[in-house]
């Protein structure tokens, strides 16, 4: 099994899109976005997750985004490819593809819509993890999947699947994060799935964040996370609170519409999202611009 250290800021990458059926993915903007992440000293990038609009990417698009990301990053930072599905067979296929093309790890969302039992979740994650040799990060986000991966089930998975080494906790529950840390300790790396909760989750033992805001402010998000991990509470609190209005603006509408609006406001790609998502309203774009402008004025 490949062993990597998972810690710090990981950017939940957008998939830049165009209103052009012949070439719907904006590969040049993806390349630029990746270079900005490397320059911002993030620990890694996560293509094809929720923020990457994985539910509406075709299988071919999904494969090409992962391939392009791995090739462009060229081992300068980690690539944790989103390969989850509500079909175990499909998750295995995508995970094996990510492994073949050189991803450092995969991230598997809890199966959505079909609402498996906890035993079904256990079997799903163990089967997919057993199909690859690279590390696996579980992604628990009940608000989107309709089902919660119980901490007890995560313990069972950890006992049976040694390459399941991390969990992206997007329950919005800091008590859940501390329970996982208390139960599994160093065996399982907990990552915050919510920028606004990174500091409190690190305080109870999480080791970083899979961040939406880092798409537009990679260096600043990385710095705030590092302060927290270093135990520099005054700087960590200051950096966290300074970024909080931006974090909050990223969820005024369904992710990733706000972060794409933010990137477009800063000249990186368009705010195109794939239906049934819609571009942000003018009111939301105004709120995002206000938060970005205020942050930049305060850190000029």
Secondary-structure blueprint:
Blueprint: E1 8-12, H1 27-39, E2 44-46, H2 59-73, E3 78-82, H3 88-101, E4 105-109, H4 118-130, E5 136-140, H5 142-145, H6 151-160, E6 164-169, H7 174-184, E7 189-192, H8 198-203, E8 208-211, H9 218-229, H10 233-249, H11 257-265, H12 282-298
Parallel strand pairs: 1-2, 1-8, 2-3, 3-4, 4-5, 5-6, 6-7
Helix pairs in contact: 1-2, 2-3, 3-4, 4-6, 6-7, 9-10, 10-12, 11-12
Low-confidence stretches: none
The CATH superfamily turns out to be: Aldolase class I
Alpha-beta classification: alpha/beta
CATH architecture: Alpha-Beta Barrel
Task: Describe the overall structure.
With 300 residues, this protein is α/β, with parallel strands linked by helices. The chain has a single domain (8-230), classed as Aldolase class I (TIM Barrel), CATH 3.20.20. It is 47% helix and 12% strand. It has helices at residues 27-39, 59-73, 88-101, 118-130, 142-145, 151-160, 174-184, 198-203, 218-229, 233-249, 257-265, 282-298, and strands spanning 8-12, 44-46, 78-82, 105-109, 136-140, 164-169, 189-192, 208-211. Helix 3 packs parallel to helix 4. The radius of gyration is 18 Å and the shape is globular.
